[in-house]
Amino acid sequence: MKRLVLATLLPTALAHSHLAYIIINGALFHGFDPLPGRQTNAPDRVGWSSTNADDGFVGPVNYTSPAIACHLDGASTPAHAPVRAGDNIHVQWNGWPIGHPGPLLSYLAPCEGTVDGCAGVDKTRLEWTKIDDSAPVLIDPTAGGGPPGTWATNVLIANNNSWSVHVPVGLRPGPYVLRHELIALHFAAKRGGAQNYPLCINLWVEPPAEGGEVVMPFMLDGVRAADLYREDDPGIWVDVFKTLTTYVVPGPTVAANAMPVPHSLQSRSVPLRDGTPVGVTGTKTVPFLAKETGKRRRILVHEFEG
Ligand SMILES: *[C@@H]1O[C@H](CO)[C@@H](O)[C@H](O)[C@H]1NC(C)=O
Ligand SMILES: *[C@@H]1O[C@H](CO)[C@@H](O)[C@H](O)[C@H]1NC(C)=O
Ligand SMILES: [Cu+2]
């Protein structure tokens, strides 16, 4: 019996994490579960698949390899979650262990020159613009004052292991990959000891509601995944259990006109219904009805220029 209990507790004790689902305006879209026997390969999942069967991480040893883009062997999916510029995307992680402090970062990359949206995109060529990162409160009197302070991971845990990402107003309609990433720094005092958890999600940014134009375009300023981080970046090779006065969040700076959701406005969220992901053909989308049986087809085709 004892063995059995241990066997069920162990994965939780080692709990690293993956993307369970996202919620957009109450609608749930599935992520990918990499754990053995639990791989959710539903065709309507919007989360990229990966081969980290231990729910593990990508380390600095792989910062210049394709794995840093969308996790180990990250592979896209035909489904995209429809969203509008200005919406929030609620990202639900499967869990997060205490004692693993670090920042949370979000990036967007447009899928250009493809006929299937982000389904067949080359992840090494995607150009990522940072739309959210999260500097820690290094000296937090409400949390006892001393190191490591209060990190995004504390806020994540307090909100049932979830995080809200704001889709920038003025983002041009079309297919995008959202790269949402947690960097655990508990071993980062040792060079090469940081642990990255990059999760990729396909999005379809719908044209503005009134059929209007994108008035204030959101400026994209893309960096390829292999150029995001270096093993000796000050925010990657760092002892967070020492008293720090500054922390430099790794990667490029957040785009000037992005509006990250501040720690104080992060909250938990429960899905109200299943979302209908879309597939992309050229500049059109069609609903994914993979799991529907005999339901009325609701065809919503969006067309737009460029
Ligand atoms: C680095 O990448 C290789 C090849 O994808 C993988 O086998 C290994 O687990 C990765 N290690 C880390 C720490 O990222
Ligand atoms: C917390 O997250 C889990 C998924 O990890 C979800 O099943 C549950 O409904 C969430 N609970 C609340 C209260 O948000
Ligand atoms: Cu761990």
TrEMBL record:
> A single GO molecular function, which one?
metal ion binding
What reactions does this protein catalyze?
[(1->4)-beta-D-glucosyl]n+m + reduced acceptor + O2 = 4-dehydro-beta-D-glucosyl-[(1->4)-beta-D-glucosyl]n-1 + [(1->4)-beta-D-glucosyl]m + acceptor + H2O
Report the principal subcellular site. Answer: secreted
**Which ranges carry the Auxiliary Activity family 9 catalytic domain?**
16-244
One record GO biological process: cellulose catabolic process
The UniProt record lists the EC number as 1.14.99.56
Cofactors needed by this protein, per the record, are: Cu(2+)
Report the enzyme's class at the first EC level. Answer: oxidoreductase
Q: Which residues form the signal peptide?
A: 1-15
What keywords does the record list, in alphabetical order? Carbohydrate metabolism, Cellulose degradation, Copper, Disulfide bond, Hydrolase, Metal-binding, Monooxygenase, Oxidoreductase, Polysaccharide degradation, Secreted, Signal
Give its localization.
Secreted
Q: What Gene Ontology terms describe where this protein resides (cellular component)? A: extracellular region
The protein's superkingdom reads Eukaryota
* InterPro entries associated with the record: AA9, AA9_LPMO
- Matching Pfam families, A to Z? AA9 (PF03443)
Q: Which family does it belong to?
A: Belongs to the polysaccharide monooxygenase AA9 family.
Q: Quote the protein name from its UniProt record.
A: lytic cellulose monooxygenase (C4-dehydrogenating)
Q: Which organism is it from?
A: Lasiosphaeria hispida
